Amino acid sequence: MTSLLAVLALIGSATAQPSATFSFITPASDAASAPLQAEADISRRAIEKFFGKPFVNSVAVTIVGSRKEFDAAIPAAWGVTPSQCWMVGAGVYDRLIMLSPTAWAKDACDHKPGDVDEAKQIMRHELTHVIHGQYNPTHDFTGLDDAAWFIEGLATYVSGQLDDKRLARAQAALGSGKGPTGLADAWSGSEKYGFSGSMVAYLDKKYGRAKLISLLDKTTNAAIMQELGTTQQAFIAGWSEWLKSRKLAPHA
User: Fold this and answer.
1) Are 10 and 125 in the same domain?
2) Which of 75, 109, 135 is the last residue of a domain?
3) Residues 58, 120: one domain?
4) How many structural domains does the chain have?
5) For 106-142, what is each residue's pLDDT tens digit?
């Protein structure tokens, strides 16, 4: 059984414009529901501050208590159901769907069961997809597989998931010749979060926040590179040099 909790229009972002309304459907008596609802507000404010833009469309946040409910909440048109066990969240311009961490022990893999702190990072990751979708003409990133490095890398970077451990693994993989040779290859393999997230971090450092924000509406790698005034080869070379030069402690 679920309970519907509506949140008033959330105002007070870094911009002068009001943010859109968030609504919640959560499992009744789920211990993670209240912390995740609070995190949605915290993340919304942090994301709007990062981009200097508000959420402009209402967002329906659905937190479910089982893998079966998770798959049922995902539109069939997305083509991702039955979902893989590592997938515990999904976000597009008007909705966010998340498997409660209280269900991870039974219905998820590669996530620490009951870890609300990890769930909060995932909430911020998915909300980054939501605001990105609101400023991208596709709204749900359909057909943007080659630019997945930017879509997923942006969410990894903004959410704080690009920690030193992830960066160190990506650095080690790059040093051993296992790095991507093209942008379309970055979102693949075991270090895809580290590769893609660090590409966006490099982009932010080298080209600046305003330039990064200008890429939200781009739908191809060619358009992204044109906006940056570079080529894929030059961008990857610059990113590789930047990542290899970072002083990071090795992690397993």
Assistant:
1) yes
2) 135
3) yes
4) 2
5) 999 999 999 999 999 999 999 999 999 999 999 999 9
d(CA 124, CA 130): 10
Contact present, 132 and 121 (Cβ < 8 Å): no
What is the tally of helices (H) and strands (E) in the chain? 11, 5
| Residue whose token pair is 């990105």 | 132
Contacts of 73 (CB under 8 A, 6+ apart): 62, 64, 97
| Sheet with 22-27: strands ordered across | 2-6, 22-27, 59-64, 95-99, 89-92
Q: Based on the domain organization, do 30 and 64 belong to the same domain?
A: yes
Phi, psi angle pair for 116, to nearest 5°: -70, -35
Tell me the whole-structure pTM to 2 decimals: 0.90
User: Per the structure block, which two tokens stand in for 26?
Assistant: 């959560």
Separation between Cα atoms, residue 7 and residue 27, nearest integer Å: 16
pLDDT, tens digit, 9 for 90 and up, residues 143-177: 999 999 999 999 999 999 999 999 999 999 999 99
Distance (Å, rounded) from C-alpha 240 to C-alpha 202? 9
